[in-house]
Amino acid sequence: MADSEQPTNFGGLRVAAFESRFAPEMARLIEKSGGQPLVAPSMREIPLEENPAALAFAEKLFAGQCDVLILLTGVGTRTLVEAIETRYPREKILEGLRRVLLVARGPKPVAALRSFGITPQVIVPEPNTWRQILQALDGAIPLPGQQVAVQEYGIPNREFLAGLAGRGANVMRVPVYKWALPEDLGPLRNAIQEISAGNVHVVLFTNAQQVQHLLQVAGKEGVIEGLRRGVARTVICSIGPVASEALEKQGFLVDFEPEHSKMGIFVKEAARMSRNLVASKRRPVITIETPAAAADRLRDSLFLRACRLEPTERTPVWLMRQAGRYMKEYRDLRERVGFLDLCKNSELAAEITVSAVQRLGVDAAILFADLLLVVEPMGFELEYSKGEGPIIHNPARTAADVDRVRAADPADLGYVYESVRKVRAALPAHLPLIGFVGAPFTLASYLVEGEGTRNAVLTKSLMYRDPGAWRAMMEKLVTSLAGYANGQVAAGAQAIQIFDSWVGCLSPRDYRDYVLPFTQSLIRQISAVPVIHFGTGTATLLELMKEAGGQVIGLDWRVNLDEAWARLGKVAIMGNFDPVTLFADAKIIRSQVERILAQAGGRPGHIFNLGHGILPGTPVENVIALVEAVKELSCRSTEA
Known about the structure:
Blueprint: E1 14-17, H1 23-32, E2 36-39, E3 44-47, H2 52-62, E4 68-71, H3 74-84, H4 90-98, E5 101-104, H5 107-115, E6 122-123, H6 130-138, E7 147-152, H7 158-166, E8 170-175, E9 177-180, H8 186-196, E10 202-205, H9 208-221, H10 224-232, E11 235-238, H11 241-249, H12 263-280, H13 291-299, H14 302-307, H15 328-336, H16 339-344, H17 346-360, E12 365-366, E13 382-385, E14 389-392, H18 399-404, H19 414-426, E15 433-438, H20 440-449, H21 457-465, H22 467-491, E16 495-500, H23 508-514, H24 516-525, E17 531-535, H25 542-548, E18 552-554, H26 561-568, E19 572-574, H27 586-600, E20 606-607, H28 620-639
Parallel strand pairs: 1-2, 1-10, 4-5, 4-7, 5-6, 7-8, 10-11, 12-15, 15-16, 16-17, 17-18, 18-19, 19-20
Antiparallel strand pairs: 3-9, 13-14
């Protein structure tokens, strides 16, 4: 059913919500949208009786030792002033606040500040998540060396604090109140019983702490497994990414998240979506998220099942360069942080990786890194010139040059493995992470040419002129890349993609003689995870690529998917949407998705992707439209 045809209200469904401060308003909104409300306040705010952190912040503020103050809530803003006011006069407090850069997370702290006669310099746009705060700061002030205070509410947001620290800020936490369970637990206990009994159709979460308190009370009542089963049978609606992350970390899959995190919009949109979701939902519940259970969930993910040629409910989709220059948030960050510095900062690399997954709703993450990181520990001087791509300042073009090349020590790439660990910890338990390396030929091309190449003149000259030097270089690359790939797997990657970006310049004979043995050796040395073997311009090389190895063969857009699959036989296929099509309108994008899905024919083993990476300038809304079209249309074909 198209969006315009979907019911516009809950249609009598029973809707549970856990809003506390605005519980009556939430009940009225649900009723107005045609639902039967079951609103059970789940938490209350308690100001800290003694707050040395607030007073310590005040001393730094008055001494001029605070540059930025981030205010996360309206109540917290007022509570902070009141806490400091127990020792200092209000006018002195307000004078100090006027001297620092004030960052307000949305309209409520703005209103609180204006009640004191102060206007913040930075107002964080919707959906007001911690990621939007970081993006707003990236556009407002260089953070390295800045003293940044954060007014916290409830519990500290470790990822947000790490994002500030990763940008070089000196962070000071200023807690002002804590979350506690409501004094009257009766409504919450009743809601838990009704959900467990299957008498609730929709649940609405407007705060991450609600998830914790719901499970905490269910645990005290001894009904946590019943609650988990009941929640899994409902339509789970989350007001934004932070609440969604809390739900997913507990093993609950979010069905709906609005574009704007206003309570009225949230309820209205949930009402519009819920009736169809209630009718179609068939999701299992994960009752105990042990490490073994998490591993099982990953193994049963759409992406990994497709890698194994197993049937899936719909076609999994992820996109090469899904975190990149087409996103404004990434461009703003790049204005302040050099590309290599970004790759080597595990906090920022992890943040970029996870943000893209959440923004697009794809079925796998791919690590934000670069093909050439491995060449520095091999003895090469790497630089990224703005607008010109990578430059190798000491290329290897002779046998003597090759002699000085050393195999990389995997330990020298520890910052990449740390990024993998942080991404894995931040991703939902069911979502796989793909690591990657460059293929030996593509890496060799960069090392010989000194930069990107299309014709590989110098590379092929060395290959033909001195086969011994070529073999020595490729063997060193294989050793380096195998260690690097296995380091990513050990750190938490569930698959490895091998990118052979330049291999399309070779004839089939040259590929067999000069490339296949080395790529094959690399793939055989990678630990027991699926390997995606991808190249561009490879229409004449596909059978040889399959011979070289890989559970999944990636296709560019220059070959029809059905014809390529017929040539390759029993292997999973990834691709092959032309990335330029993402500049067209949504109707064209949808028609091209239909065409590729028709060529795949519902066969197990198809992973939807582009024929290469997302191009700079691509409209983000078109990328999201592509992902949504794949999900919808492949579900439809599976049901058919």
